[in-house]
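Field: sequence (string)
Field: structure_tokens (string)

Example rows 1 and 2, in order.
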Amino acid sequence: MTDRRRFLSLCSIAGTGVLAACISNREGKETQSRDLPTNFSETAIKSPTESPTPTTSLTETNEVKTQAAKVYPTDGDSGDWFGRSVAMSSEGATAIITTLFEEGTNGDGAGSAYIFETSGESWDQQARLTPDDGNSEDWFGRSVAMSSDGTTTIIGATGDEDPNGDLAGSAYVFEDNDNSWGQQAKLTPGDGDREDFFGVSAAVSSDGTSAIIGAHRDKNSNGEEAGSAYVFQDRNGSWSQQAKLTPVDGDSGNRFGMSVAMSSDGTRAIIGAQNHDPSDGEIAGSAYVFKADDGSWSQQAKLTPDDGESNDGFGSAAAVSGDATTAIISAHRDKNSNGEEAGSAYVFQDRNGSWSQQAKLTPDDGDSTDWFGSPVTLSSSGATAIIGASQDEDPNGEQAGSAYIFEANGGSWSQQAKLASADGDSGDRFGVSMAVSDDATTALIGAPHDEDPNGKRAGSAYVFTL
């Protein structure tokens, strides 16, 4: 692997807040070979011997939330980064959790994804997914999205070089047919090229027939690394590209497509460009609203925060309600009353086609370099948001990470709870990834650097009952 490929791949993989850790992980990653199990029905839940101690934020009105389970793969090993990306079905009964550096059958850094299902209080591992043509350093699992019924999933592989060149990237569609998961399609853009990092982000419609996939380093008419997002559709079992989306005012280095979100019906999308330079300053960031009418996509709005400033990184993460009238967009490097790079998240609403900022969210106990807003997720109704702070040190130590629940009541947003793992430790990066059920009663949160029980940076994921 060339030095350039290593550097670029690490930048893509790291996302918000984990580049330094990523580099040290790859240089010191253990490469023990191991036999992979052939039967994945064995349970993969760790139930603490004592009731976990939930954490709350600092206001008396906050409700206590209970950690229901800790989940990890039966074949986990050190350096896997299990929990780097997660997604969940609408009712919260099926989850997909990816490993980024798991080597498995396809080579070092090939990546994989695991399906877990719950019946009652037990979460069971049902399948392990890898692509038919997987290879070393594909980074399969960089992004993931799941249909409402939990039977279709889109998985990004930003390091894949087939067919468009080194680090061009790809995405894979897997489907569950009668409890048997299989690969249905491999998606690549019609104009893909090397170092596009297609697959860095992904979202899917409720019925699993429309998907949007980001390629944040794509070179297009807007310049080098301007970025693009691609819409794909499934028609009678055959997937094809429907549109390539770029912003009207795009420019070199914007990294449009770093984050994507899609409405339930697949006709609206929010796309982040965290390095865009609007009037707010260099690398302040922007987000764009696109809409499809009769299959034709067009830009509807450009979103920027009222108080945006240079280096905020607004657009690094995005989520949207089912009807696409409420969006939450992060600015994980925002400087606010909590300190430098404490981070913020902004709520925007669409009223009769006009988008406006409704709220700016920050945690009660935020601090410098918490990177609050990496990532964000939103309930189907748009009334509950869960926001990660993967570098927060309270209560489990430096860069242990946490997540916050915010709810809207009559248009006013307030913090309701703070979540942290019961067995958390320094460097776990709890909150790097998250998903929530449609009704906001179940949350899944990844901690890709957790070492218990599978080794250093093996990773795990936590289920919370909200």
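Row 2 begins here:
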Amino acid sequence: MAIVLAGGRGSRLMELTDKRAKPAVYFGGKTRIIDFALSNALNSGIPRIGVATQYKAHSLIRHLQHGWSFFRPERNESFDILPASQRISEDNWYMGTADAIYQNLDIIESYAPKYLLILAGDHVYKQDYGVMLEEHSESGASVTVGCVEVPRMEATAFGVMHIDENDRIIDFLEKPKDPPAMPGRPDVALASMGIYVFETKLLTEVLRANAADPNSSHDFGKDIIPQLVAGGNARAHHYSKSALRSGPEAEPYWRDVGTIDAYFSANIDLTTTVPDLDLYDREWPIWTYSEMTAPAKFVHDEDGRRGEAIASLVSGDCIVSGAALRHALLFTGVHVNSFSSIENAVLLPRVNIGRSVRLKNVIVDRGIQIPSGLVVGEDPVEDARRFRRTENGICLITEEMIAALGH
């Protein structure tokens, strides 16, 4: 059974997560971030999935109900949405990632899975969990932790594994200032992906003991994993062994899209000729809720008013009416009106762009009406005054920011 932890806000995404949890944030033209972990589980042959939700979960739960309700109990499949509901104590919501599993142990035990796969719901990647489960089963480890290689000094933002030459975890350090290097690779560190495999029976015992500890923060990264590492039988699984690659020579793709800049670049990367993330692989589809929509449409063909798109992804129900797109990613139902120019832009569903608009290096939140004549991406000072602008020059535009323009 797989449990996806999808309760986090993701505050570094700023206003993008004011109304939705990070796993519910839109990604890649049609999907949400959580669809990657869920699709990996389904494609890996795991027919029982639970999703633990907490922060502003309405849009996430609605998406799960619309897009993931095809599981059938008569085929021994199940899909459980597990909101924080004070089931153990009337005083406590989920107090940490470990507590989110602990509070749902009765549901998990009712399915009696031999192994439990714990997944983070806020990363973009394609992985065959079956390879990791097999490795865990053969090793006899108390826990197997999914790990990704990152440049050593970038690992300060992650939980970092210190391993020996047999992939046994010697030490687990949460966001260390000086991350330990991998054996024989001084510039590379091994960061936790927030993916753990346990035997359910062992995890149940560990979680019950942890829940009774008043000094614990009830978190996998801070409490459970360090405890099992100290016991001497925790192992690291290298993501490179189970990653689905876009080609034989391609690097394993894994992204934490937890900042505005990282979110923007991961989406815009998809507009390149051969992106690192292959969304066109029919052997490993990314499942999601797909609306019934009309085809995308491009109209007008005169100088200065030509509906065209270069190196762009355009979803269903989009109308590009006498406007030019370049390196743009349009989600469902975006309309771009005449004489407008859109470059390096991520436009979330149902955005409407007025006439004679020029947008460059922007993310526009769902459902926003961009007024005619607006120019963003040409004057850094003016952009920073009106919108959320990052150090890299990416502007996030929200409904409240557009409303404030009239004042």
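free_text_note (row 2): The chain has a mean pLDDT of 94.
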